[in-house]
Design a protein that fits this description.
about 15% strand, 5-stranded mixed sheet, 2 domains, 7 strands, alpha+beta, about 350 residues
């Protein structure tokens, strides 16, 4: 569990790691750019002392290149992975700003007549002359652009590989825990005890209850070995589970499950929804009382699943424990950016809402 917790913590702090990665990349770029300017100055000075400009010109150009690199990253980073037309427009904008700001600096510096920036003997130049002599700098921009996309690809690849490993570890651990929690000896004992009571009284509900128990065992033992199951299988599992749990309560106890919409061929990670239902039975309805009630609503709109669970609370329902936190972490890994989950207690009512995009 500690290993999995570490991976979950690393996922939560992903943005911080991203910032550190880009800061390190920027530091490397600053060093390379500084070496380039030093070498350029020394080579030019050795070949033609009259051709070099004052050292402050190269210092200013060095910091300008860093600022322009940050500008390019700031423009292109949020566009990565977006529609191609947005990426193209972003690249055109980044190149235009980079090119004309740099050319404008060279033009302004060479015409500034400032002794610490340009020698007094140097005459002013035209903007056309600056543009004509800037082809080498366009090549440098292409290298900067290539470096950006190379770094971005590497970062995303590393994150994807880490998330795949995390997901495999958490999914495996969660499924084992859920098997222990959901189909533990207490569940079997209560179910078999209820079935025994139905059999002794020759209750016609016995056949239905046995069929529901078969559905549960088929789902957990066979179907859940797959990374994803059909949504209608998950729904049928929930219905069977709730119907078997109903046998423990009095007839006047209100326990409802409503399903609207067509699951079609939608798939979902197995054992996602059962954790919320099990939590409601465990904490909200653990005592037999006329005040107990529970309502589960599932609405399917296209590829979007809306899950809503309300249950009674006698006293104060405990804060989400390992079970709910585990399913939240799994949702964050497997449905990143495609789900929203929330739970809250209002008086004697506990509410869980979950919205998932299953496309």
């Amino acid at each position: 569990m500690s290993l999995i917790s570490n991976y979950i913590t690393n996922t939560v702090s992903g943005k911080k790691n991203d910032r550190r990665f880009w800061l390190n990349a920027l530091l490397v770029y600053c060093i390379v750019e500084a070496l380039f300017h030093v070498v350029t100055y020394l080579v030019e000075y050795r070949q033609c002392k009259r051709c070099v400009l004052p050292p402050m010109f190269y210092v200013c150009r060095y910091f300008l290149n860093i600022l322009l690199m940050l500008l390019v990253w700031a423009i292109l980073n949020p566009l990565y992975g977006k529609p191609i037309w947005k990426v193209v427009l972003g690249n055109v904008l980044a190149f235009s700003l980079h090119y004309f700001i740099y050319a404008g600096f060279i033009f302004a510096a060479l015409n500034s007549k400032t002794n610490w920036l340009v020698w007094p003997a140097i005459k002013g130049v035209t903007f056309e002359w600056v543009v004509y002599g800037s082809w080498f700098d366009i090549g440098k921009y292409v290298l900067k652009l290539s470096a950006f996309y190379g770094l971005k690809f590497y970062l995303n690849y590393r994150k994807a590989a880490g998330q795949r490993f995390q997901l495999a570890m958490v999914n495996k651990d969660m499924q084992l825990n859920l098997l222990k929690q959901q189909l533990n000896p207490h569940f079997y004992f209560n179910t078999l005890n209820n079935l025994y009571g139905l059999a002794r009284s020759n209750n016609p509900l016995l056949v239905t209850a046995l069929n529901q128990l078969e559905n549960i065992m088929q789902y957990v033992v066979v179907d859940c070995n797959k990374p994803a199951v059909l949504l209608h299988q998950e729904i049928r599992f929930l219905q069977s589970y709730i119907e078997l749990e109903k046998l423990r309560y009095e007839r006047h106890t209100s326990i409802e499950m409503n399903v609207k919409g067509d699951p079609q061929q939608l798939t979902i990670a197995p054992l996602i929804l059962i954790q919320f239902v099990e939590n409601a039975f465990k904490h909200g309805m653990k005592e037999k009382s006329e005040r107990n009630w529970m309502k589960v609503d599932l609405l399917i709109e296209g590829a979007t699943l809306h899950f809503r669970l309300e249950n009674s609370v006698i006293g104060t329902q405990p804060m989400p424990g390992i079970g709910l936190n585990s399913v939240s972490n799994l949702l964050a890994l497997q449905y990143e950016g495609r789900h929203k989950v929330d739970w809250q207690q209002e008086g004697d009512r506990f509410l869980v809402t979950l919205k998932m995009n299953l496309s």
